[in-house]
Amino acid sequence: MLDKLTQQPPDALLALIKLYNADPRASKIDLGVGVYRTADGATPVFRAIKAAEKRLVDGQDTKAYLGPEGDMGFVNALMPHVFGDSLTAKLTEAGRIDGMQTPGGTGAVRLAVALAAKAGVKKIWMGTPSWPNHAQILADCGMEVGTFNHAAENGSADMAALRDVIASADANDAVLLHGACHNPTGVDYTNEEWDEIAGLLKDSGTLPIIDLAYQGLGDGMAEDAYGMRTLVSAVPEALVAYSCDKNFGLYRDRVGALYAIGGDADVVTRIMSNGSSLARANWSMPPDHGGAAVRVILEDEDLTADWLAEVEDMRQRIGQVRARLAANSNAGGVDLTPLGRQKGMFAMLPVSKEQVEQLRKDHGVYMAGSGRINVAGLTMGNIDAFVAALADVTG
Ligand code: LMR
Fold first, then answer.
1. pLDDT of residue 160
2. What residues act catalytically?
């Protein structure tokens, strides 16, 4: 029976981690998977996380099961940072919001799509290019996928494409949007565009599923949530998939949350009961440790302030790298100036698969085959080498 399985290719992005580790060149540059690096090229555990983990080691008195929804202290403490104080209060008082912990942002997206499918959604619209795992999750959930162009020729988001999709979408369709720091293009909707999108979705009734995986790494914590908050304020129903992997540096601990916004408390209760049963059938319950560490931080004012300062440092550094890259309007024919206007960790370069291969072989520069680079993998010490390598293969 099992011999009928056909060989699957390894995940191209995750395969880069191994390729990079096996490269003996000291000058190699990792711009592959989305992991933040400091000015020294390190990916340290956050100070606030270390402090919270120490408290957990000393104070945690059991590791008994919590349940499919995970640590609700974590979910509720995170909510005001995601939705803002006033929207959180408004939705909570009306019983219109609830959430549950998930294994990373991926688990949250998976659960959102599975919930949408269970509710009768047949087709999900997705801007392309997108994070490759989005398409895999949609396919795995048996969802029909409709695509539209995300980034326009002029470097802005392609609002016309989204407008058309929302206007033509069926009543049972959903649309999957990146809340901020679009992966892979770095091209986000402006606040004015989010205002318009919120109005369009409100009128059309299309269910928004928002993936917010990089809050704080674009323009700031509140700024990066503007679009999602505006949408959620306008529409009766929405699903928000959240990741703490980047903005708490918890990658391998898999920390995420799914928030469901419904028309009334009764609907929300039913959504969450379905979320719980889907979680139980998929992973039973999320891993506890990372979520517990986030809860400890968010329950403590000083640790919260320190965490926010660390996120702000990351944001500033990403901005500096982007500005430095953007100073190169002609890196062998590649214009890097748009990177100065884009947000977050990622950018797409107009390079061919062969050029990506050449960058890896000849220069030890590792990036996704799509031409996506993780801007946060660059430091002031290796930017010039990267730009020179790019110029070499594209010039
Ligand atoms: C990425 O896009 O590099 C990150 O979201 C990591 C991942 O899981 O793919």
1. 97
2. 131, 211, 213, 246
